[in-house]
Amino acid sequence: MKSTEKIALVALCISFIVPILALAQSSTVVYRGMQMSLPVDSSELQDLIQSHNANVVGAFISSENLNTVHTTEAAYQAAVDDELDKIDAQLPLIEQLGAKIVLAFGFPPNGFTPNASPPHSRMFSDPTLQDWYRNIMVAIVQRYSAQIQSGLIIGIDILTEPADSSSEPNNGALDWFDLADLVIEDIRAVNSDIELILKPLYGTLDNLKKLPCINDYTNVRPGVHIYTHLNYQHTGEPSYGSSPFSISRPGLRQIENRILDKAAAFLRKQQNTCGADITEDIYALDSGEMTFPACAVEQDLFATDVLNTLERNDLSSVAALLTKAQCKERKRTQLQACNGKSKKAKSRCRKKANQKARKCLAKAKRESGGGNENDNSLTAQVRWKNWRIQSYDGTKNFDARYECDQQGNFTLVGQTDLYTAIDTFFANNALFTTSSSE
Fold first, then answer.
1. Is there a domain that residue 387 lies in?
2. Structural domain contains residue 280
3. What is the pTM of this model?
């Protein structure tokens, strides 16, 4: 190959690769924080925001009496109001400290159907309860209109883990996405500004690609919970039947593949089926919940791998994608160089080019961990806008300040290895001010 041809090839490769790499590197997370059930002690909030540099609090709206059957809508509204009062008590402090708030609604009317598997919210079998849910969401938006306008409340997760089991009767009730359409319309009738977070059934990565077309809405961000390895992320929890430190830590490649493959499948649908421009900001995902149990093996290393993946740091899959692009471009150039040769020489030349390309692509596939080729091609475009870790919720196993021993006993340490790992990511929030971080 002539030197001029080599220069042209390098230039062509760079022109193809640089936009992909730039997109991967430009996907800066803006809000990093904790999701918690308020109220918590004011000193804890101050420590989280000032000492650890979290810039968002996910205020989880739920109740210890979640499954109470309310006979009237007024009784249900009063129960929700009791929970909102707890949030109200700490709004001034959060605002004073310069952090933002995402409201995460997890209090569907009358809770869940007993013994349903998977879990099933009663409102998905009762149209009347769905009306109650629609009304309470509008009431919440109206209640916090001033805080939304001021920018203190930056988003509302309209239902944290929609539980609509196909094995339960619907009795004329709408399925989740049809109901969500109405809720979004209801909210937009009273507030056009607040960002709404829409999650798939149960908020899972597996269901992420089933979200409807995001470009059918205005200012609706797709959300998902980051449970890549559910049993590991609930190590030591009695309901999961595992004893402390009994489950091996998943490796980085497993974590990357689990998160990025599912997110890429979502983007693929949005691009191919919905005709979306997936480079728009609204396709940067929101994660309102993930757990790193104190009783889990090397939970600090697991947290680092998960958060690095959300932040798009050190991703083998991005490097593999770039390698794959180079393989294909090299093959195309080598095949072109075969033209003009004799028939026999051309055949040998093409065979050699194809063999080299297969070896090159096989290496790229190994580096990316395999997976669906079409989805892997979108890996570099997966990105997150916000993430929040479940913590400070009264469950010591999910509180980064606690350590767990082999018997499942907890000790309040404060600055654990896990919290130190999380702080490494919270430190990036120093790049943003309260006025410019939106």
1. yes
2. yes
3. 0.82
